[in-house]
Amino acid sequence: MEREGGMTPRTISSMLALRSAADPTAPFLLAERAVVSFAEVDDQAEALAASLANLGVGAGDRIALVLPAWPEFVISVFATAKLGALVVPVDPRLRLPELRYALRHSGAACAVSAENAFGIDYLQIFEDFLAELPELGHVVTVGEEDLWYDDRIFQWEDLISAGRGRDFEVRGAAPEDPFAILYTSGTSGKPRGVELTHGNLLHAAGETARAIGLGPGDVVAGVSALHHVFGLGPGLLGTALNGASLILQDDPGAAGTLEAAERHGATVQYGVPTLFATLLRRIERRGGPPRTLRLCLASGAPMKDDLARRVEASFGVPLVIAYSLTEAASTLAMTRPEDPAAKRILTVGRPVGRTEVRVRERDGAVLPPESVGEIAVRGPGVMRGYHRQPRETATATDPDGYLLTGDLGMVDAEGYIHLVGRREDVVIRGGFKVHPREVEDRLIAHPAIDRAAVVGVSDDILGEAIRACVVLVEGGVATEKEIRDWAAATLAEYKVPDLVSFMDDLPVTGTGTVMRHELARRLSAAGRREATIQD
Questions:
Q1: Is the N end or the C end of the chain the one with fewer CB atoms within 10 Å?
Q2: Distance CA 411, CA 255 (A)
Q3: Cα 83 to the chain's mean position, in Å?
């Protein structure tokens, strides 16, 4: 990651300082209502950091971000870096219990939140949180409302204005210092806070950008989830590191993505397979993709071979695929534009940078090339550990320091990684991991449901859709809508079953454990029979 004058940015704060000095007026953020330069982001981050320091927020504190993909999210990330604090990006669409858990578990001392977004009144939520969470001392709100709330709630514009020209103590960070805590589901669906350092994030972001030749003049589209590890790393930091521009959009759907890409002259399109599937439909209706594109990059979930081929054919540019994990700061392997076509779209590529990958048996034995086993990874992107969970951290790594990914795959003779499945039960819906047990526990709590099993079924748009198979109690009555509404009351939107099947029984083992793979097979066979009858 060599940069101007031979200097390599070692921390996120120094990276922005280098970029702001080299290209102060270059457009960094292309938002719906404004274009924000690197210097403007740096100046506002400096002002916000000064105001937060004046409130007592400093090195080592955690700052939660509950924001859509707005410029204020980006500015807050860099203000946090200047303070030597840790950023906790949280999905703003989380249900209240999950949001409360992330704030409490991370020990957030400050939160930067939208006042209103997605129809949610965050002002009221955070007024309640200030009474419930003793460590949460301050809330900064982004919006238009004149505040009359708690005196610990501050408006964004007021803090930016008050912080301009104000000095504050700067704590020099090191690459190995933690910078972010990102929450991801564990083996049981319970959230775990992944601690990533400055070095972790800059490595993955820089190597992803290097692999696709990202640089000044490039415009990146399709990054709508900045709270996600790929959005924060390669999306935000990778763009800044290489002097490119990042499109920020309120509408993460296909229509909004295409309109923004066309308007800003996007050259690189990022996205999960679900986004590309929906983009294809729009492209076919409108007569073609944005003419400025030179590359597409898919990440976040496995991509079906036929979808990958359709993307290349319809977009008319190479498609590369990244293998991304939160615990590896996003990209640990990826294909490159110059790879042979079969390797580029049928594998997840080769390890990036100094990342090492091995394939192992359950007993830890390392397997030779072309053998299927669990993929393990070691390198500069691998996390420090799970926040406040040393036992979980120890379980996730082997004695040689390799992270156990839970993914099953093989490395071929040429070093390309092929993914074939998961060691544990998990549904990857639209790029988000959903653990069946968590959904099943919610369903079984319904008074009319006796037993439930959740499986993933193939879906052209989502990759996998969530199908809930339920057995009602004797005499019980429930509709599909009622069951979905019951799940939606406490689960995040992406965890709510897409389909509900009412069954007389579920296939189980001799010990009573539901055989999800057998259930999925039966559902698939039934679907094929139904399609044949309709044909």
A1: C
A2: 38
A3: 24
Residue-wise pLDDT for 16-52, tens only, equals 999 999 999 999 999 988 999 999 999 999 999 999 9
User: How many of the other CB atoms lie within 10 Å of CB of 170?
Assistant: 14
Taking CA atoms, 434 is separated from 232, 329, 385, 446, 504, in Å, by 21, 20, 21, 20, 25
Alpha-carbon gap, residue 216 to 26, rounded angstroms:
9
Cα separation, 98 vs 101, whole angstroms = 5
Write the DSSP assignment of 91-152 as a string of letters: -TT--HHHHHHHHHHHT-SEEEEESEETTEEHHHHHHHHHHH-TT--EEEEESSPPP-S-TT
Pairing between strand 35-37 and 62-66?
A: unpaired
User: For the sheet containing 403-411, what is the strand order?
Assistant: 356-360, 373-378, 403-411, 417-422
Distance (Å, whole) CA 88 – CA 93: 15
Structural contact between residues 419 and 348, judged by C-beta atoms closer than 8 angstroms: yes
pLDDT tens-digit readout, 484-511: 999 999 898 999 999 999 999 888 765 5
What is the distance between the alpha carbons of residues 280 and 308, in angstroms, rounded to a whole number? 11
Could you tell me the pTM of the whole model? 0.84
Cα separation, 372 vs 257, in Å, equals: 38
Question: What is the separation, in whole angstroms, between the first and last Cα of the chain?
Answer: 56
Nearest by Cα to 262 from 298, 299, 287, 228: 287
Place of tokens 């060599």: 2
Q: Are 224 and 230 in contact (CB under 8 A)?
A: no
> What tokens does 97 get?
């219990």
CA distance 195 to 483: 36
What is the pairing mode between strands 191-197 and 138-142?
Answer: unpaired
Tracing tokens 């999306």 back to the chain, one arrives at 235
How are beta strands 427-429 and 432-434 bridged, if at all? antiparallel
